[in-house]
Design a protein that fits this description.
Two copies of one chain form a homodimer. By secondary structure, chain A is α/β, with parallel strands linked by helices.
């Protein structure tokens, strides 16, 4: 801060000079003392100068007695999972009161490397939302697949002091941490040297394994599956992120374990949020509603979404309505519905009555708009010639991304080609490497997905985001892949060599450049079409289910571009099963 | 941390390798969840690797079921006020469980400038106690006196990243802050640029003045005089330091205002602690006892003295017994008496059963050992020739450092010299500049101190620490001053040109180089002698009373080397009072 600015801030605070903006007549929610006080908020150069009673401001906004909350913070999100650009995500999230997100661009960096991070940093400058990126720590995510990039500690270090960077993203490789893998440890040491926090991801770790993970300096976890796990992590000094997004929703269950002590160490996060949820239910405001519904004191809920997150990430300039902090302020009608009527970020009114007020501009995605680098694709590459009737199949289960490692008896023709029978519900699934023209293609079988005809292909496949395609006919699947390559990624649903529906995601094959409403509508049509035209089981989310079919860190059986992977035993498996 | 060290830490945590040290059989106090769990603490390279059950350690310490607490943190202290060197202070404080102090070397820097800070930093390396210095922000303290040094923002900046420095010391000049004084603002901006915290000192500030002070980015206050003030500061986002030292003890009163929310924003501090208190009552362990006596939950008390302080000062490496944090650990018999039986700092056993275990070495004070730079002193310089019988006197009051601005009728001889009458109890007081041979001497009158004969002279006089002398005879006072100069500062009590008792403080005229027990005993003899031989009122602390006679920021009337200062009206006053 320049001296003249500090001087003015002090003068405004001490009522010696009118504020730039005076938000008058608020019920100010204090997250330090949990008191609610009627008063005004005096703002100067985007910073809160003082709270109390002030005579005047150059501009005055009458809050009409509404509650003033600190700007809400999503403590962990992958923006890419909304299929929206940061600009579009901000446009929709900000009117819901979200003013800061701690975002891990894990997906795009796994596709495009640091070019992806560069793009996300540039794009974030075009939204009022303050996006603090955590540098993805697991690129590639595993050694069992081909991602688009390899990012090591020294490349990460180059971003450590970038003003848009808040730390190191979720360390998923707990095996690497515990075994002292050099590549992993270099990243942790870099973070320690640069004094930036490291986010965790520690599903089911406990006892001395959890201790080993904590000893590495990892400080957060958003993967608590039980109150016991939550307490164990809190005991160990971790901040626990209570998650309620489009994919996973442990928040209500974990709130049972929230006491006055845990209330200071828990944060709120979405992890993933799809545009339909964002547009229908809102963002962190929705989590506040869930908290209150579950009986949490509303100011405790707000505190978790503001002060706690700010403290966890060292953002001492926000998280509360107090002097010398950024004027990130949200007005809400009440403390139960949390209907947000106005949002200021850095003192600027950026949303009112659900509308985003800033002009929307679009960052040119540049090189990340062309992420389809597939070698020599032809229908022949999908050819699967089975040498046994007894095969391993990926068993799809509703409501979970965990799959089963099943065994099925199938019919095949004289060439070994699968003969599809609707009753068996065993279909074809393939993964095609798309980043470096390696030409790798892996073919396998999937059971329980329900697809009877046509094909679905997509470029969103955690975490390497190669092309994944399902169908019952190699020809149709190849057509879908070709169409997908033509549209530079996204999702296509085809039938009889015709594209029925599609959602192009030209930015890294992960994000649309369209408005959130269009993305929502097209995705909805894609999903309905998959179910209604192709026969995908109604009980499944047709797209999310496929997005996780390639993720070799989630049990039991997955398909990467290198083949069928048995996650439980950490080894590749042939499709043909041994005879009993 | 080196990679091999991190690798080992993780292996020890996950029980793949024995710890360097295993503290076995503890009741581990968890300041995050407030749970107490029986278990072991595994330590590796001075860092806590894990807590739980561990099979073995290269060394094993059996805690015998005692409570293991995180090392205690004094969040605000002036070590000089103990008259002890950092080495000696550490020797006595550490066995009481204090492992970190946030120390403001305000006194020595006002005498010796940054040379004083250099000495304190060097000396702190010779104690196990981790001393984090706050760079004094007010040197000189006021413009109404001559201190030994002037330290501006740019000199302070040179220390901002020193590993022994934690931020900027208490900003006492609230008037300068609120008026936007350039010299003051430069320091605040420097702190903001260097991202280091600024401590506060805001007695009685409220309303928009408090807002102005907070807007400047100042984050702590240890001067709360009421629960109302405490709440106002907590509301504003300040950390409140609950004080219980040798001089001021608001802790029990303020604990009435401690609720579950304030419990996260309050810290414990002593501000000043004399050796007699340190040796008799202890250090922060004593504050824990006071808290528990006042009905505070013992783990909340521990949390205030550990985690809260660590969070406030950004010391993420300590404040809790948790993996990846420094092994600063204290064993206590129980959670009521907090009798400390063992202390580890950075994994090293540094105290046991009240004994400090490390060899005691002494930092050479070098240039700060010679701080007496008095020009042309002679008895004549103390000559006071009164031109009126009606005079202003400094009225001493018991139990407070606030003085009255009194008016007295005195007797004087034909030369205008005061004729002392025991019944009036008006004595002589003088301040002699001692830093830069300026030759400045100011003479005045003091009432209610009780001195009847002899003289007391000392070099500890907040905050400029010039020589202060009281007595009833100019000759005797001059003798005392000469003796004080000869002993290079400290305290002398003389009678009939004989030194009755003395406490030499050769280090900057502020600190002894003797053990704490000797300092305590000599100070005790000085005090008794002042009362018993010289007649100083029993109700007063004879030395502390004098130490604050020169401090021109405490009302109402004080004497600096420039003259009698009316603090209330911020102006110098002649001794002669106007006739009514």
């Amino acid at each position: 801060m320049e001296k003249h600015a500090l001087k003015r801030l002090i003068r405004v605070a001490s009522a010696a000079e009118p504020a730039d903006l005076l938000i008058r007549n608020c019920r100010i929610v204090n997250v330090f003392t949990h008191r609610v006080k009627e008063g005004d908020i005096a703002i100067c150069d985007g910073v809160i100068a003082g709270i109390g009673r002030y005579p005047d401001g150059q501009r005055v906004y009458d809050a009409g007695g509404r509650y003033a909350l600190p700007g809400l913070i999503d403590s962990h999100i992958h923006i890419e999972s909304s299929f929206l650009t940061p600009e579009q995500f901000g446009r929709v999230a900000v009117p819901h009161g979200t003013t800061t997100v701690i975002a891990d661009p894990h997906e795009i960096v796994n596709v495009c490397g640091t070019m992806g991070l560069d793009y996300m940093l540039r794009a974030a400058e075009r939204t009022a939302l303050d996006v603090r990126y955590m540098i993805p720590s697991c690129v590639p995510c595993t050694e069992w697949e081909d991602s688009g990039a390899v990012v090591r500690a020294e490349q990460m270090r180059a971003y450590a002091r970038h003003p848009g960077v808040g730390g190191i993203g979720e360390m998923m490789d707990s095996v690497g941490v515990l075994s002292g893998d050099d590549v992993v440890l270099d990243k942790l040491i870099m973070a320690s040297e640069e004094r930036i926090p490291v986010d965790g991801h520690a599903p089911s770790l406990d006892g001395s394994s959890l201790m080993g993970y904590l000893a590495a300096g990892i400080r957060t976890d958003h993967e608590c599956g039980s109150i016991h796990q939550m307490r164990e992590r809190l005991d160990g000094g971790m901040y626990v992120q209570l998650r309620y997004g489009s994919a996973c929703r442990e928040l209500p269950m974990l709130l049972e374990g929230l006491d006055e002590y845990a209330a200071r160490r828990c944060l709120l996060c979405s992890d993933d949020r799809q545009s339909v949820d964002l547009l229908t239910h809102g963002d962190i405001d929705d989590l506040l509603r869930v908290c209150v519904c579950c009986g949490v004191d509303p100011i405790t809920a707000v505190q978790m979404a503001t002060l706690n997150a700010a403290e966890c990430y060292g953002l001492t300039d926000r998280g509360a309505i107090a002097p010398h902090r950024r004027a990130d302020i949200v007005l809400a009608d009440d403390l139960s519905d949390f209907h947000i009527t106005a949002v200021w970020i850095g003192g600027e009114l950026v949303a009112e009555d659900g509308r985003y007020l800033l002009p929307l501009t679009r960052e040119d995605p540049g090189p990340v708009a062309n992420s389809m680098h597939v070698a020599d694709f032809s229908p022949e590459r999908l050819r699967l010639r089975l040498t046994s009737d007894r095969v391993h199949v990926i068993d799809v289960r509703p409501d979970t991304v965990v799959t089963g490692c099943g065994i099925a008896r199938i019919d095949r023709d004289e060439n070994g080609t699968l003969l599809y029978h609707a009753l068996d519900d065993v279909a074809r699934i393939s993964v095609i490497e798309r980043h470096h023209h390696t030409g790798k293609v892996a073919n396998a079988l999937i059971r329980g997905y329900g697809i009877r005809r046509g094909a679905i292909a997509l470029t969103v496949g955690h975490d390497s985001h190669n092309i994944l395609v399902v169908g019952v006919s190699e020809d149709e699947m190849a057509f879908a892949v070709e169409q997908l390559i033509d549209q530079r990624g996204g999702i296509v649903v085809t039938l009889d060599h015709t594209v029925l529906e599609c959602l192009p995601l030209p930015i890294a094959g992960l994000m649309s450049d369209c408005p959130a409403e269009q993305v929502r509508d097209r995705l909805h049509r894609v999903e309905r079409c998959a179910i209604e035209q192709l026969g995908v089981r109604e009980a499944l989310d047709p797209i999310v289910t496929l997005c996780f079919m390639s993720l070799p860190v989630i049990p039991e059986l997955k398909l990467t571009d290198r083949g069928l992977f048995d996650v439980t035993h950490q080894r590749f498996l042939s499709i043909e099963a041994e005879e009993e």
